[in-house]
From TrEMBL:
<dbReference type="Pfam" id="PF20148">
    <property type="entry name" value="DUF6531"/>
</dbReference>
<feature type="domain" description="DUF6531">
    <location>
        <begin position="24"/>
        <end position="90"/>
    </location>
</feature>
<keyword id="KW-0732">Signal</keyword>
<protein>
    <submittedName>
        <fullName>DUF6531 domain-containing protein</fullName>
    </submittedName>
</protein>
<dbReference type="InterPro" id="IPR050708">
    <property type="entry name" value="T6SS_VgrG/RHS"/>
</dbReference>
<dbReference type="InterPro" id="IPR045351">
    <property type="entry name" value="DUF6531"/>
</dbReference>
<feature type="signal peptide">
    <location>
        <begin position="1"/>
        <end position="22"/>
    </location>
</feature>
Length: 542
C-alpha cells in the first residue's frame, strides 16, 4: 500500500504541468506567460520543458508564433563582429562585443553595399541608411541577417556582455562557448544551435538533432526527453518514460491547443496579428488580454476571477523612442482604482547599442529613481530622502555600495576566479578562501566565527567544521548515494542522521539515534554557515 502511495506521488511529480508565471513588461507592453509541460525528476536535478509566450515577439518557434523555450536559444554573428544570442529563441537578445569598439560605420557600409546588389538605392538614401544603421545596433543586426552579412570571428576570440550580468562568449573551433558568472556554460555549434548546457558541478544536458529538428535531450544522470514534429517544423509531441505524451495543435502558425503530460488541457485564442488574446481552462474560466491595434502594447488583462488591470502608455513627443512611461491601474483593497507609474529613459552607446539609463517609479505614492551605467548596472538609487551609490570593477562585479543612511559594503574579489575574497561592511569583515576548482573552503569573520569545507572528488561537501571560538566547534561529515543525495550526516560526538529515499529520489524516511538534539545541532551549524557565507549587504536593493 505504501509503495503504491509513493508511486502515485512520484507519477504526479512527473506528470504535473506547472503554471510558471505571467505578466506584462511595463517597459515595452509585452504580455508573457509560461507553462511547464513535462518534468522528469531524479538525481537531484529536474529535466523539464517550459515554453514561454511573448506578445512582442515576431518569431515563429517550436511552439508557434511568439512562443519560445530555453532550448531554442541560438546565436548569430553580426556584420560588426558582435554576436547576438537569442534567449529562448523568441525572447530577449544578449549582445556580446569585443573589448575594443566595433566599427559601426564600416559594418553599416558593408550591409548597404550588399543591399545595393538587390535593391535600387540613391546615393543619398544609401548614405542616410548607413548613418541610421551606425547609430542603432539592433537595427543594424536585423539588416545584416536579412541580407546575409556576417563578420568573420576567429577561433580564440572572446567577447563580453553585461546585459544579463557579466558573461563571456568564447569562439572555438567547434563553435561557441558562453560562460555565466555562476559557472554555468552554454555550448553552440557553428550553425548557432545549442548543443550542450553544463553547470559547475558537472551536471550537463546534451542535445541531439535529426534533419534540423531536435530529436532528444539527455542529461548526465541518464534522464531523457524525446520530440516528434509536424512537417512545418513545429513540435507535435514530447515524452519521456512511459506511454504518456504532450500534444500540441496549431492553426496558421498559432498554438491553439496544448495537453501536458498530466493531461491538463489549455486552449489559446489570438487576434488577427497573432497576439495571444485568450486562454481557456478546463474549469471554463478564461484569461483575456487586450492590445492597442497600432502599437500592439497590452492595454488590459482580465484574470480568471474577473479582475481587470489597465495599462496606459505615454512618451516625450521630442524623444518618443527614448523617454516613455506606463501607468498601471487596478482595483485596490477597497475596490477603488489604484494607479502606479513607471518611467524609462534610454541612451545609446558609441557603437549604437541602446541601454536603459533611468527608471523612475511611483508606487503607492513612493518615488524611486534609478540611474544605470552603460553596462546596464545601477549606479545610483534615490528613494525619499536617501541615496544609495554603487561601484563596479571591469568585470561588472559590485565593489562598493554606500548609502546616506550610513550603511556601506566594500567587496574584494579573487583575481583568478572572480569570486568574493573579502567583504567589509557595518557589521565587520568576512574573508573567503577557495580551492583551485573554485569551491569555497574557508569563511571567517572578525567576530570569531569560522567555517571550513572539504569536498569529495565529485565536488560534494564531505566535511564541514563550524567553529565559533577556539573551544567551541562542530564537525559534520556527509555521505551520498549514487545519485548525489546525502544519505548520512554525522556530527562528531553527537550522532548521525540517516536519510532514505524512494525509487524516484524523494525523501522517504529520516532517522536519528540522537533524536531532536542532533537535528537542532545540525540546524544551528547550517545557520552559522549561512550567516558567514552569505555576505551581508551584497545586493542591489536600498
Amino acid at each position: 500500500m505504501m509503495f503504491m502511495k509513493r508511486l502515485a506521488l512520484a507519477l504526479v511529480a512527473l506528470m504535473i504541468a506547472t503554471f510558471a508565471h505571467a505578466g506584462v513588461n511595463l517597459k515595452n507592453g509585452n504580455f508573457y506567460i509560461s507553462y511547464t509541460d513535462i518534468v522528469v525528476p531524479g538525481g537531484g536535478k529536474k529535466l523539464e520543458i517550459t515554453r514561454t509566450y511573448n506578445s512582442k515577439s515576431t518569431e515563429v518557434g517550436w511552439f508557434g508564433f511568439g512562443w519560445g523555450s530555453e532550448y531554442e536559444t541560438r546565436l548569430e554573428v553580426s556584420a560588426d563582429g558582435s554576436i547576438i544570442v537569442h534567449e529562448h529563441g523568441s525572447g530577449a537578445k544578449t549582445r556580446f562585443t569585443p573589448k575594443t569598439e566595433v566599427d559601426a560605420v564600416a559594418a553599416s557600409t558593408k550591409i548597404v553595399n550588399e543591399m545595393k546588389k538587390k535593391t535600387a538605392l540613391t546615393e543619398k538614401a544609401a548614405a542616410d541608411l548607413v548613418q541610421k544603421l551606425a547609430t542603432n545596433a539592433e537595427l543594424r543586426h536585423t539588416y545584416a541577417m536579412n541580407f546575409g552579412v556576417q563578420a568573420a570571428v576567429a577561433p580564440g576570440t572572446v567577447l563580453y556582455s553585461n546585459d544579463r550580468g557579466p558573461q563571456e562568449l568564447s569562439v572555438t573551433k567547434e563553435g561557441y562557448r558562453r560562460s555565466h558568472s555562476d559557472g554555468k556554460q552554454d555550448f553552440f555549434n557553428n550553425e548557432g544551435q545549442l548543443v550542450k548546457m553544463a553547470d559547475k558541478s558537472g551536471y550537463f544536458i546534451s542535445f541531439a538533432y535529426k534533419n534540423g529538428n531536435l530529436d532528444s535531450i539527455k542529461d548526465s544522470q541518464a534522464k531523457q526527453i524525446f520530440f516528434s514534429w509536424y512537417p512545418d517544423g513545429m513540435v507535435k509531441e514530447i515524452w519521456s518514460a512511459g506511454d504518456k505524451k504532450t500534444l500540441y495543435k496549431y492553426q496558421d502558425s498559432d498554438l491553439v491547443y496544448s495537453k501536458d503530460i498530466g493531461e491538463n488541457v489549455y486552449e489559446f485564442g489570438y487576434d488577427k496579428s497573432h497576439n495571444l488574446s485568450s486562454i481557456s481552462y478546463a474549469d471554463k474560466t478564461k484569461l483575456s488580454i487586450g492590445y492597442d491595434q497600432k502599437t500592439f502594447f497590452v492595454t488590459s488583462v482580465t484574470d480568471r476571477n474577473g479582475e481587470n488591470t489597465k495599462y496606459q502608455y505615454g512618451s516625450d513627443p521630442k524623444r518618443p523612442d527614448d523617454h516613455y512611461w506606463t501607468v498601471v491601474t487596478k482595483p485596490g483593497f477597497d475596490g477603488k482604482p489604484v494607479a502606479n507609474r513607471y518611467e524609462y529613459e534610454i541612451k545609446a552607446k558609441t557603437d549604437g547599442s541602446r541601454y536603459t539609463y533611468r527608471i523612475l517609479t511611483e508606487i503607492n505614492g513612493i518615488k524611486t529613481d534609478t540611474i544605470y551605467g552603460d553596462n546596464s548596472l545601477p549606479i545610483k538609487i534615490a528613494r525619499g530622502n536617501h541615496v544609495t551609490n554603487f561601484e563596479y570593477n571591469a568585470q561588472g562585479l559590485l565593489t562598493k555600495k554606500s548609502s546616506t543612511k550610513g550603511d556601506f559594503v566594500n567587496i574584494e574579489y579573487d583575481d583568478k576566479i572572480n569570486k568574493i575574497k573579502k567583504v567589509v561592511n557595518n557589521e565587520g569583515t568576512t574573508d573567503f578562501e577557495y580551492d583551485p576548482k573554485g569551491n569555497l573552503v574557508k569563511a571567517a569573520n572578525n567576530q570569531g566565527k569560522t567555517v571550513f569545507l572539504i569536498y569529495d572528488t565529485k565536488g560534494k561537501i564531505s566535511k564541514m567544521v563550524d567553529q565559533e571560538s577556539a573551544s567551541s566547534r562542530r564537525v559534520l561529515a556527509f555521505k551520498y548515494n549514487a545519485l548525489g543525495k546525502p544519505v548520512e550526516i554525522e556530527m562528531e560526538k553527537v550522532g548521525k542522521i540517516n536519510v532514505a529515499y524512494d525509487n524516484y529520489g524523494e525523501i522517504k524516511k529520516v532517522e536519528s539515534s540522537a533524536g531532536h538534539k542532533m537535528a537542532l545541532q545540525v540546524t544551528q551549524a547550517f545557520q552559522n554557515l549561512l550567516t558567514i557565507v552569505k555576505p551581508a549587504g551584497v545586493n542591489l536593493n536600498m
